[in-house]
Design a protein that fits this description.
The chain has 16 helices and 18 strands. By secondary structure, it is α+β, with helices and mostly antiparallel strands. Strands 10-9-13-14-16-15 form a six-stranded mixed β-sheet. It has a four-stranded mixed β-sheet with strand order 1-2-5-4. The radius of gyration is 26 Å and the shape is elongated. The N and C termini lie far apart (about 60 Å).
Length: about 450
């Protein structure tokens, strides 16, 4: 094992100073990792009662540290050299200074990471951090409504085998110090005033808006899942069939898109009531969240996966529901498919812009000669903007409806070159058809 560092701490066994080490990482700008079951020399010794120790760790971190660090830590089992150890990942908190409940906000209760050691925090630094503490966090803002219900949230918890008991509002930190529902509760409630937008544009700019959807006025979890479903639907699969195999490529890497959307929803600054938004263009998809980088987090820290959750309560719920896997895992997952140049940091926004796959653009040319029929090609040539069936048939000079449906419309839909304007009601009398990004690329090639 590598030696201890400013971000890695080894402990042979669970000891009384766990809170001290955890607090030091919570107060440190990069967070850190504590391994239980590895000695100071890096030798793996393992844990005899791993389940019991994990329960103790979660309970101690939950109850012995102030402000609450729920949503700021992961506790997991890791097998190293055929032995099980406990890995505790801690994010840098935004409500510094953190301290032990027993000793309070003093040099005996506050710690900071210095090199590979956890040292008492000087009084001057404690006072400085306290003066900068984020007082406008969602957990402290009272909900504009107190008549909230949470049936949707309860259903999502039950779906992952968890039950919300009568104390769930307190356990999930949905209450202010005055025992009123806070703004996190408002966002998680069945009915609220927050709505996220998904827009589609014809072209590469925001001039010609073709579609505008709103997902919200419901639990943030439900709205996030609806957006993920919409993006999954828009992320067309393009198939290239050769004599030997069928190769499929999607417009965007769905793992990266999923992480980007969830990151935007979890880390968005909702205090100004500005929601995240998703926008489709002919050549890219853009995901924008409000709120720049949290104070103390640099761009380099961001790209390295350093986690500093702006909304720890939301992070905790998304982790409970298995929408988030590990602290700090989102950005590295995105970077596996897209470069740093896809991120743009503005004063008040973070924007992620993912280009449509270049492989698909190349495959369009090949498919024109290998796979696309003459009928589909003609349909794509005549389809402008949004047109209904009769308009397209008239443009093609076709009178036989079944011939048009079987040889033109159906294959163009199946191959992803065109799409319905009302996909949820395929037989609607108001149904129209338009070119997809793939269809527009093919039309340009023609």
């Amino acid at each position: 094992m590598t030696p201890e560092t400013n971000r890695i701490e080894y402990k042979r066994q669970l000891t009384d100073d766990l809170e001290k080490e955890a607090i030091a990482f919570l107060n440190y700008k990069e967070g850190g990792v504590i391994y239980i079951g590895i000695d100071k020399k890096g030798n793996v010794v393992g844990i005899p009662d791993i389940d019991g120790d994990m329960l103790k760790i979660k309970d101690r971190l939950k109850n012995n540290i102030m402000p609450s660090c729920m949503g700021l830590f992961d506790v997991a089992v890791k097998n190293i050299d055929s032995k099980d150890v406990i890995k505790i990942t801690l994010a840098s908190g935004v409500e510094k200074p953190y301290y032990t409940k027993k000793q309070g906000m003093s040099e005996k209760g506050c710690y900071i990471r210095i090199g590979s050691a956890s040292e008492p925090m000087p009084t001057k630094q404690i006072e400085y951090l306290f003066s900068k503490r984020v007082r406008n966090s969602l957990g402290r803002i009272q909900s504009p409504r107190q008549d909230l219900s949470f049936e949707q949230l309860k259903i999502y918890y039950e779906a992952v085998g968890k039950t919300l008991n009568s104390q769930f509002a307190k356990n999930l930190e949905l209450l202010t110090d005055e025992e009123k529902f806070n703004y996190v509760a408002y966002l998680m409630a069945d009915v609220n005033g927050m709505s996220m937008k998904v827009a589609k544009y014809n072209g590469k700019d925001r001039v010609n808006l073709s579609e505008n959807y709103e997902y919200g006025y419901c639990s943030l979890v439900k709205a996030t899942k609806q957006i993920l479903d919409k993006v999954e639907l828009e992320n067309k699969t393009f198939a290239k069939i050769t004599p030997k195999e069928r190769m499929e490529t999607r417009l965007w890497d769905m793992i990266a898109l999923r992480e980007a959307i969830i990151n935007a929803c979890v880390h968005n600054d909702y205090t100004r009531e500005v929601p995240p938004k998703v926008e489709f263009f002919d050549d890219r998809i853009e995901i924008t969240s409000y709120g720049g980088l949290p104070d103390g987090l640099s761009e380099e820290d961001f790209f390295e996966g350093v986690s500093m959750p702006r909304n720890k309560e939301i992070m905790r719920i998304f982790k409970d529901l298995e929408l988030v896997e590990h602290l700090g895992s989102g950005v590295p997952r995105i970077l596996q498919s897209y470069g740093r140049e896809c991120f743009r940091f503005l004063d008040n926004f973070i924007r992620m812009s993912f280009p449509a796959s270049e492989q698909i653009t190349e495959q369009v040319t090949e498919q024109v000669t290998e796979q696309v029929t003459e009928q589909v090609t003609e349909l794509i040539r005549v389809l402008n903007s949004e047109m209904d069936r009769k308009e397209i048939q008239n443009k093609l000079g076709l009178s036989h409806r079944e011939n048009f449906r079987a040889n033109y419309l159906k294959p163009a839909l199946e191959q992803g070159f065109i799409e319905m304007t009302i996909p949820e009601k395929p037989n609607s009398s108001l149904q129209k058809y338009r070119l997809t990004i793939l269809g527009k690329q093919l039309k340009n090639k023609l």
